[in-house]
Amino acid sequence: PPTSAPSPRPSPATRACLPDDPRHCYRVVPPRLAVDESLDGGRSWNTVWGVSEGREGVLRRHDDDNHKWPWQGSTAVAVQLVPDGHVVVAANGNDGIAVRDARGAWRRLGFSDEGFSADTAIPLRSPNVNLTTEYLVGLFTGLLALMVGLSAARRNSPQVSALSVTAYVLALIGFAVSVSYRSSLLAPLLILFGLACTLTAVVLTVAAAVRARVSARTALALAAIVACTSSSICWIFSGWVSGTPDDYSTAVLSAWLAGGAGVVASVLVGWRDARSAPGGPAA
User: Fold this and answer.
1) For a surface tag, which of 17, 70, 90, 95 has the fewest beta carbons within 10 Å of its beta carbon?
2) Are 271 and 263 in contact (CB under 8 A)?
3) What is the residue extent of each domain of the chain?
4) Which of 95, 81, 78 is nearest to 27 (CA)?
5) Lowest-confidence range among 9-23, 150-164, 268-282?
6) Which of 23-32, 124-133, 215-224, 231-240 is predicted with the least confidence, judged by mean pLDDT?
7) Which long-range contacts (CB under 8 A, 24 or more apart) does 212-220 make?
């Protein structure tokens, strides 16, 4: 006899209402990690549980780093009547579930060996998020500040230094290779190669500065600016993971400002050194 095709799996219920009060409903809107409530049959909705966009961004990054399947957010919701009221359960994909008890209190629960537990929920602050790309950006921004500062200090040189050109090319190659590690199985080798290019660029830049007789005071000032610039960018993104700032775009803007300030400060220090050097322009 012919076999019937298997019936398709039902779609998750993204909306559920109280059996004894059809106007009182809850819904989820994937990929948001949140639950909305309506008291007028769905004419208006109010978010009664959820995380901020910034913390959701952190959880998305954690999800991308630790799971093979994409972020889902809140995918389904169910309502169950109990003697003291009603209970709501929202399925949150890889993040676990969110539960509203009969008193109206919400809890976010993660997966555990026994089922679900609040202790195993991924922390909203300082979770295990891979910030390698952001740290590399901080490193290369510091390198850029060093290179442009030394270039400004050598601006009285009558010709372009081959060492400087090579250093810029290697720095660009190192940056491009390092930040592309996510899409390759050779990530460790790519990062090592990028860092090797970076180290070589630093050596060539310093060699060009020594040849141009950049003063030790200027070199120390540039080194301090580089350290502050790179560490500031790394601290900004570490702060984002910890919740300050909450939004990733704010962290990116802050990193741009920190990097720009570092580059400008390096140029000013190098420019001042060039003006005070023998043969430099008169003040």
Assistant:
1) 70
2) no
3) 15-120, 132-276
4) 78
5) 150-164
6) 124-133
7) 212/150, 212/153, 212/154, 212/157, 212/161, 213/277, 214/150, 214/153, 214/154, 214/270, 214/273, 215/273, 215/276, 215/277, 217/273, 218/149, 218/153, 218/269, 218/270, 218/272, 218/273
